[in-house]
Each structure stands twice: as C-alpha cells, then as structure tokens.
C-alpha cells in the first residue's frame, strides 16, 4: 500500500519481462537498456576481481562494546538496483555471474562454485518476492517506507548468508571462522544494501521509471491477495528463527573450540558470548521495531481495504437502488404506454367494426346492403344444405313507389323507405337477413321456415305497411302496398344466382297479377 491515500505507482515494484526488450516503442531504447546491462555486468565482474585481489573480504567494526566483521561486496549494490528497477530476471544474473567469477578464481571446484553463486541471487529473490506481494514502495522516501526497506534488507542479507556455509566448508574453516564469516556476510550485505542502495533509489528512481514507462508502458500494479502477504510473513519469520538458531549454534561451537582453563580463555569465551548476545540483541531490536511497524501497516492497510470495501458496497447499493428506481419508472411508463396502446387498439377495433358495419349497412334504412347479402347468402345456402333445412328467399318491391316520389317528393319517399324498414324489427328472427336490394326493392333470407310461416310473415308485414300514414304538402299518403316473389331452396342443388332469379321471376308474376300480393316460384313444365 502507498503511504498516502492516493495510489502511487512510482517506486512500486513492477518487473519488466525479458521479452519486453523486443517491444520497445523506439529502437534506441532497446539498445540503451542492453548497453546499460552489459556495462553493469562488466562493472560487477571488475569490482568482484578488485575485491578478490584487493583483500576486501572483511573489515573489523565496533558498535559500542560490540565488535564484528563486515563483508563488503560491491556487485551486490548494482544487482539490487537492477532487481528493484527492472526485475529479478535482470538483476539476478549480474549477482550470479560476478559471484561465480569470485568462486572460480578463489579455487572452488566447479560444482561448489555453481552452488555457491546462488547465495546472493537467493537473497535478491527474497527481496523481489517481498516487494512484489506486499505492495509497498521500495523508495525510502518516508519513515514507513524506510523502516520497511531496512527490514527487507535484513531478511535478504540473512537469506544470502547461506553461502557462507559453503565458503567455510570448502575452505575448512573452524567453527570460530565460520561464525565470523556468516556474521560478516549477513551484516555486511544488510548494511551495504541500506547505505548504498537507499540514496541511489531516492535520487534516480523517479527519473528512471519515467524513462521506462515512456518506452515500456505498464498498467498500475494490482493489489496482491492476502495469502501472499501471509506467505511472505511466514517466510520472514522462518528466516528470523533460522538466524537466531544459527547465531547461538555457531557461537556455542566457537566457544567449544576454545581450549584451556586459564582466566584468559574464559575471558575470551565470555567476550564471544557477549558479542553474539549483543548481535542478537540489536538484530532483535530491529526486528521488533519492524514487526511493530508491519503490524501497524497491516492494520492500516486492512482498515483502508475495509473502508474501500464498505464504500464500494455502499456505491453498488446506491447504484442498484438508482437502477431499481429507474427500472420502476421505466416499468410504470411502459405500463402506461401499454394502457394507451390498448385503448388505441380498442378504438381502432371499434372503428374497424364501425367501418365494416357501415360497409355492410344501407345508410338510409339501416338494413344490410346488397354487398352483405351476396356475402352471406352462399353461407346460408351451405348451412341449410348441411342441416337439410328449407331456406326461403323473398324479393319485395314497393308498389307505385315512383309515383310517391313524383307526387309527394323524395323526402316523403325516403320516409316511406325508413318506416318500411323499421317494420322488420319484431317480425324477423335472429338468423333471418333483411337487406335493401336496390331502390325500393328489399330481400329477405328466411332459413328454417316453411311456406305457411313465410306467408304469415308477409301478411303481417303487408298489414303493417298498409297502416302507415304520412303527411305531405299534397295531403296524406296512405294505402301503401308491396309485391313479393318467393323462391325455395330445399334440394341442396340451388345456387345463389338461381335462387335470386327464381324470386325475381315470382315477383314479376305478382306484379302481373295486379300487385299488392306475392307469388311462389313455380317451375314451368317442360
């Protein structure tokens, strides 16, 4: 986690894969990186040989009453900087090749030299893993990052000091010598990394990372899972326990190698125990302080994570409520639109019904028109044929209707047509059809009636029509009558046209007989 509340990416460990060398935005950047690495390798090899032939194996140092040996290894500084700036894959080969050179020139066998050279890369691996999985800036620009940097450098130094045992074994050192080599190795690596790398990281990291981000852009590092932090913490604890065990083991063996019972020998043993105890004391003080700091950092990080999680949950809840409200508004609007659409569809259906009704009705009388008659008559014929029921068709013509229009006017004639049409109400059954056939002609379709029932219907209609009285400018209009022709379809072989022709022929017979009556169609004998 960064020290401030904003997520900072400068100084955060972001390894650059070796394959990224081929994907630089500009060609010179690739060669600059390669040239810098080769120059760093040459510097590591030169410094390793200078240390070997110059005798920089260790320096005696004192801190108060504590005396110890410091082992300085200059290639370690260069390797550590490459690990932090570009990744473990770039810095570890520098440490390995330089250490391998020292091992071979020191006379180690090839097998032991290859194994011995893994010591410093092991410490660098611990350093890289900690910074990769614990998202803390490696630049010691604040008190918290500085303390964490010191703690990590100590763990890395202890891890790399495993190479001291190989060196002590191959050079057949005594227990005292092995203790001094091991103590000098981890303490020298620890102090060298803190003192030499810390200022360089402060001075150069920001500028170098801007150059790297310009040529090899990378996204901001994502927070690692908590389990990685726990694994790093467990590994660090194991390193500390190993350090304590080795400190007391090597100190004890060193004391056991001191012979003699003189006061000087016992004083030397006491001094050795004291140095070992003081070393452990200072190391444990640093570790205790680091543990307190890491505990605070973990608590602070966990608190921030919980706060961010609570804010995210609150945001998602508000977003869900807002979307739910928007969905409710949209649902209500859709429901209203559905209601309006249903109302419009009902209006359209009503209009369509009215249009169909108007298309099938005579506008003056309100009866069905001739078009509707021709649509329904074939259906009635088929139905009568299926049910084997008789079907009568009656054509009615109002007598002397032209004289009514000429003498009394068309308004009176229209009134006669309306009143005559109104007479059908109450006389016809639901399955009967009454239509205005044209002018003063009307057609009745009467299914399921026999001849006597048709004749009774016409008598009632004739009587009611004769009782109509209308006033006009020429006096009262009365004495109205009509003529009708009847045809019958009862054998299943009659068509619509034939039925109408037969009714029309019977109508002419009724008119020829003096009007005011009706005739049934009688086929002429052959």
TrEMBL record:
Catalytically driven reaction(s): 2 GTP = 3',3'-c-di-GMP + 2 diphosphate
Keywords: Membrane, Nucleotidyltransferase, Transferase, Transmembrane, Transmembrane helix
InterPro entries referenced in this protein's UniProt entry, alphabetically: Diguanylate_Cyclase, GGDEF_dom, Nucleotide_cyclase, Rev_trsase/Diguanyl_cyclase
Molecular functions (GO terms): diguanylate cyclase activity
Segments forming domain GGDEF: 389-523
Transmembrane segments: 34-56, 68-91, 111-131, 143-170, 190-208, 228-251, 279-299
EC number: 2.7.7.65
Name of the protein in question: diguanylate cyclase
Species this protein is from: Vogesella amnigena
